[in-house]
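seq:
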Amino acid sequence: MSLTLENILLIGAVLLLATVFVSKISFRFGIPGLVLFLFIGMLAGSEGIGGLKFDSPAIAQFIGIVALNFILFAGGLETSWKAVKPVFWQGVSLSTLGVIITAGSVGVFVWLIADYFVDGFSLYEGLLVGAIISSTDAAAVFSILRSKKLALKYNLRPLLELESGSNDPMAYVLTIVMLELVVHPAQSLWLILPTFLIEIALGGLLGWLMGIFGKWVINRIQLEMDGLYVVLVIALMFFTFSITHLVHGNGFLAVYLSAVYLGNHDLMHKRSLLKMFDGFSWLMQIMAFLILGLLVYPSQLLPVAGLGLLIVCFLTLVARPISVLISLLPFKMKWRSKVYMSWSGLRGAVPIIFATYPLMAGIEKANIIFNIIFFVSLTSVLIQGTTLDHVARWLHVAAPKKLKPRSPVEQFLDECAKTQMEEIDIPTQSYAVGKKIVDLHFPPNAIIAMINRQQKFLTPNGSTEIKPHDTLVVLTDNKKTIEKVYEKLHLTLPEE
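struct:
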């Protein structure tokens, strides 16, 4: 089949349809869909039944970076500050110190044992492998936790999501630093350290500033078409990544932090944005895994399988537990929670995306490194991803689904029927007069269904401005929320 535009679109549509149907099967049998997405890509590739010739690390890296932007941004939007606040410093410790410990221990291990399997790795090459594989994968963790509807005790779920969403930037910086040392081995690590610190600092600062700027733009711009708000947010996301990268900051960290800021503030069309980016996140996960599956040659995985299995065993049973124990040493946490955190350190698409950087740099052992990372990531998701729920029950950290605490984001997106209705009259001198609904900061589970304005009923949105003598028809799911609505409006709740 010649690769015309129509044929490329046809092939892409068939692959996407296959992944959607396969995801249904994966949910039913408890197999991580991400593994099946990789297998579909491998089956469609040059050594599979599809026979598609794809050998472009540059394209794979570009698609991977775009996908990672969407995945991190979607994860940031859904990160509730209220949920992660109790475990914030634990998450920061895991995503910084934990990543460094994992990278260093795995790197030294690879350097010591590589001679028995391949042509031998220098210390810097071993540390490069450790850096690439040092972070847990946000896409893998988010999708597996949600697909399994896994309820966890002791704030483990927000801690896992915070760590996996925030440790990719650290792994990226370590990968770039170690790649620089592999290419220029005479360069001192201490000379690169200031660059490392500047990247993290700039990424954090610009992410926070772009979050503030993004909120201001989204809530102040008056767009005639609601769908353009999604386009606006996508543009802000890529602008944040690009401008941060341009000034040598960490773009991935900036994207994640800006999304966390936006997700924890009132935005125009926030419900629609959350749902749209959840869909984008799934699409990008599928695309990334398909492309990476197409890029790999399965026949090249067999020669590195022995080394890969040893790395998986060391990473899962030694490096990850040590990094978790040391990172969480200053914090009080049950031993079973630490064991579960150790087991939940899944690797996925992100390390494979980072493994394209050595390919692009053209270093001598780039192909071997890529194949090792692919094998380790695939094995990690396959083994740990299928056992997360079983290990949770074995360690007694799984909570009954009916007792699962619901995050503010889940409450905000809740479509269940409302049981309370309140009509609230707005006096002439009310605090709410002249303000947009989005600026009133209503509770997430309260909806202004209608506004009665001069005997005409309006369907409001976030930009609707409250006027004197408006009657707000508010729907909620309990009486306490009605009380909070009155508080936000600076009104006194009428006596029954």
